[in-house]
Write a structure and sequence with these properties.
This protein has 499 residues and is α+β, with helices and mostly antiparallel strands. It has a domain of 301 residues: Orthogonal Bundle (Cytochrome p450). The protein is built from 19 helices and 13 strands. The strands form 4 sheets. It has a 6-stranded mixed beta sheet. Strands 5-13-12 form a 3-stranded antiparallel beta sheet. Helix 8 packs across helix 9. It starts with a helix and ends with a strand. The structure holds protoporphyrin IX containing FE. Protoporphyrin IX containing FE (HEM) binds next to helix 6, helix 13, helix 14 and helix 19.
Length: 499
């Protein structure tokens, strides 16, 4: 009997040790490693506080530990680097040591049910270079113009030529128009406003569930709803359905061809389409909302950009007239809007807040800009949160919570790119698009889209807040880390035709 008891006791002891190990009880800071903060809850560590408000939590950790620290979250150890001078060490590190794809693939599988294939990321980058930048962007800009204008002018009932005020929720208005205009670029020549409005409505439902879905903490009922929505979009965006359309963007077409050639199953291709729809449409609409709201709250910004818009139209021999032709805003014209460019950059500084994460593939040493060195452990993760680390740093951007439309303008009126910390020029002073291998491939298209929308708003409409005293709503803290932030509530505004 006693003979039997010993192995049982040993097994229990081993299990208990293993359990404690998994719960992180034995993890200690080794010499040369960043400060370690495991939090009070075993295994979970700080994950609840992180999810509640990432920016607040990281600010607290920064004040406690300085510009580099390791925190435990849900069984993983994340080292956060908060010194923007040292970002290059992470962003430019070779893939052999810091890997982006592993982490991203897990997330994408959980949220979109999509399993990517070899070389796909490389292909996405090259097809984005072709279609979402340079010459490809000229084609995309042209495709967006009629869509945007049709939606904007239709919503005010331009046909009856009346100049009456129309009221709407600004967030809903911006997101809906930018989403639907972009969706047509992907899909159809014919504008089906009703159908696209319904689709936007469903998209918003998924969009709202997204943060909890990404963290894997949806309650059962919402999980079922997320499943329903996924299936709806897989079907709407299925290869079969898309191939029936004529006017698919080259970006989508190339992606599909690549997957077809690689023998990817059709159902998986459909899932990828939904992922691309979300990536391409989930951030620009909310960014357009913040930009228009800031303009309405800052009349000096509004009039500076209005002046730029009117002058550019005049210089190109165009004018908005009742019943006149649509504006032909070319890619070339959009290259000559330094004031609007600065306002876009300022909006993104204040409202785009991704977390950039890489898996540490092998033990390595991180060299900070000031010469300090830290050891990173294989199996851990390393992350940047530029929003707290640099975008809101008062030394880099004085008065950081205030929208200053000309923050990114030089006195000569060109793009300002020199920002300093500790007297040294920063390379990474705002990072709405992420950086390095995972940088947003749609960033030029996104800026272009935003500028087109705001340009047209200013060209066609007069617009103002319903209540001019209304404060800018606060940011919904549940969405930190995924791109453009959303407001906690909508804001009513009104608009009418200028001419
Ligand atoms: C204001 C608008 C936008 C913002 C702030 C934004 C931001 C971002 C960020 C932060 C990432 C991830 C970076 C990382 O993981 O390190 C990303 C990825 C991505 N974005 Fe954007 N984005 C915007 C608009 C767009 C548009 C319009 C498109 C396409 C037309 C697009 C396509 C993508 C794709 C495909 C990815 C995944 C890239 C990959 O797997 O490496 N984005 N975006």
């Amino acid at each position: 009997m006693e003979l039997l008891l010993l192995p049982v006791l040993l097994a229990v002891f081993a299990c208990a040790l293993g359990g404690l190990y998994l719960l992180g009880a034995f993890r200690r800071r080794r010499p040369g490693e960043p400060p370690l903060d495991k939090g009070l809850v075993p295994w979970l560590g700080h994950v609840l506080e992180f999810r509640r408000d990432t920016a607040k939590f990281l600010q607290r950790m920064k004040e406690k530990h300085g510009d580099i620290f390791t925190v435990q979250m849900g069984g993983f150890y994340f080292t956060f680097l908060m010194d923007p001078m040292s970002f290059g060490a992470i962003v430019k590190e070779a893939r052999g040591k810091l890997d982006f794809s592993k982490f991203a693939m897990q997330l994408v599988k959980r949220v979109f049910g999509y399993v990517s294939i070899k070389d796909e990321h490389k292909f996405l980058q090259s097809s984005s270079n072709k279609h979402l930048m340079g010459d490809g962007l000229v084609v995309m800009t042209q495709a967006m113009m009629p869509n945007l204008q049709n939606l904007m002018l239709h919503s005010i009932g331009q046909a009856d030529g009346q100049k009456t005020w129309k009221e709407d929720g600004l967030f809903n208005y911006c997101y809906s128009i930018v989403f639907r205009a972009g969706y047509f670029v992907e899909k159809a020549k014919e504008i089906d406003r009703v159908a696209s409005e319904k689709l936007f409505y469903e998209f918003r439902k998924y969009d709202k569930l997204f943060p909890n879905l990404a963290y894997g903490v949806l309650p059962p009922r919402e999980k079922m709803e997320a499943e329903r929505l996924k299936r709806l979009f897989w079907n709407k965006l299925s290869v079969e359905n898309i191939n029936k359309r004529e006017n698919i963007s080259g970006w989508i077409w190339d992606q599909q061809q690549f997957e077809e050639e690689k023998g990817m199953e059709k159902y998986m291709q459909d899932r990828h389409m939904f992922l691309l729809l979300w990536a391409s449409q989930g951030n620009t609409g909310p960014a357009a909302f913040w930009l228009l709201l800031y303009l309405m709250k800052h009349p000096e910004a509004m009039s500076a950009i209005q002046k730029e818009v009117d002058q550019l139209l005049m210089a190109n021999g165009q004018a908005v007239k009742p019943g006149g032709p649509l504006i032909n805003l070319t890619r070339d014209m959009l290259l000559h809007t330094p004031v609007l460019d600065s306002a876009v950059e300022e909006t993104l500084r204040l409202t785009a807040a991704p977390v950039l994460t890489r898996a540490v593939v092998e033990n390595m040493t991180l060299k900070m800009a000031d010469g300090r060195e830290y050891k990173l452990r294989q199996g851990d993760r390393v992350s940047l949160f530029p929003y707290t680390a640099v975008q809101l740093d008062p030394e880099v951007h004085p008065d950081p919570l205030t929208f200053k439309y000309d923050r990114f303008l030089t006195p000569e009126g060109t793009r300002k790119t020199d920002f300093y910390k500790d007297g040294k020029k920063l390379k990474y002073y705002s990072m709405p698009w992420g950086a390095g291998v995972s940088i947003c491939p749609g960033r030029f298209f996104a800026v272009n889209e935003l500028k087109q929308f705001v340009f047209l708003m200013l060209a066609y409409f007069e617009f103002e807040l319903k209540d001019p005293k209304e404060e800018v709503p606060s940011i919904n803290t549940k969405r930190w880390g995924f791109g453009t932030m959303q407001p906690t509530r909508d804001v009513q505004f009104r608009y009418k035709l200028r001419f």
